Amino acid sequence: MRNITMAEAIALIDYGAGNLHSVYNALKSAGAEHIAVTDDPVLVRGAKRIVLPGVGSFRACYEGLTSIPGMVAALEERVLGANVPFLGICVGMQLMATRGLEHGECPGLNWIAGEVRRISRTDPAIRVPHMGWNDVALTPHHGDHGLIEEGEAYFLHSYHFVPDNGHDIAAMTDHGGGLVAAVARDNIIGVQFHPEKSQAYGLDLLRNFLEWNP
To answer: What keywords does the record list, in alphabetical order (predicted)?
Structure first.
């Protein structure tokens, strides 16, 4: 972990399960000046924005996050209590669910009620994992935050978030059927795709996040 101070504005959470280098570089390219790659709950409590990446299985990511003493409490204090802008990426988005069903049932953070299920193969031609570029289409519930726009993004996942409340779904994509591409509520946004791999589209999303004041 880098030697950083409380003056850092964005906390990029390091819990051993994220594509940190690529996300860090994408945030810098989008205009972020102060980024703390951190596993320190004290720094998280001082952050003005929080980004939670995630690569791998739901259970491994959840266990990695919860194994850091005080981290979940610090995240909930800042995100749910202080309403600081939060962005979850891929499994970092999925962890907001009530539970995940990968390798057996595993609890999630339960910030947005729902569960993470394996993508169903309704057509033998549909491949799992869902990998590559695909459309992102806004829903009527995408809100007025303006972070997510219509376009194409890069996806890589075998499981998908199914929220209990459709009003939490901000965008959809299609891979043999509709899959949630983004969720949003108040100061929280999560994207199933990888903005750090989505070129201009992804950088636009990150720029919007850096300017977002919910």
So the answer is: Amino-acid biosynthesis, Cytoplasm, Glutamine amidotransferase, Histidine biosynthesis, Hydrolase, Lyase
